[in-house]
Design goal:
Layout: H1 5-23, H2 37-59, H3 63-88, H4 95-123, H5 143-150
Length: about 150
């Protein structure tokens, strides 16, 4: 046996490390959405609505318009995602669970948006009004009332 003891010791370790690295590569795990293009499109459409809601939260000027974007678009996004998930999990009997979760979501999302808007209104948070906008219904009150309330 020629060579040093470190070379004899390191050679088998390096050889097994290379085979372990090749054997340890994980195989592709199948997804519930594989082979179901309708479910994929519905989930993608729901994600587009959620992205639009996120953009609305950043871009809109006051709490009321931000809340409108959050509740309406998130509810529509949830509709797409839950419908896609119901179709995707139909073979494994997951649809009743998805429907139960979706029903709870559709009851709570608009209701929570309403409650947040109501508390913002009762706290007196101002809403956005452009320079040239006209208050046809008198919802904002007269200028004298607004200035008296601010004092």
């Amino acid at each position: 046996m020629r060579g040093s003891w470190t070379a004899r010791l390191a050679l088998p370790v390096l050889a097994t490390a290379g085979t372990c690295a090749r054997a340890a590569a994980p195989a592709r795990v199948p997804s519930a959405l594989d082979g179901q293009p309708v479910a994929q499109v519905l989930v993608l459409l729901g994600c587009v609505f959620l992205l639009a809601a996120a953009v609305g939260l950043v871009r809109f000027p006051d709490v009321y318009t931000r809340l409108h974007a959050a509740t309406k678009l998130v509810t529509l996004g949830g509709l797409g995602i839950f419908t896609g998930a119901g179709i995707a999990f139909y073979p494994v009997d997951g649809t009743p669970r998805v429907l139960l979760i979706a029903g709870f979501f559709f009851l709570t999302a608009p209701l929570s948006g309403y409650m947040i808007a109501r508390s913002a209104y009762l706290r007196g948070l101002p809403w956005f009004q452009e320079e040239g906008s006209v208050d046809d219904w008198g919802a904002l009150g007269s200028e004298a009332q607004v200035s008296a309330e601010e004092r």
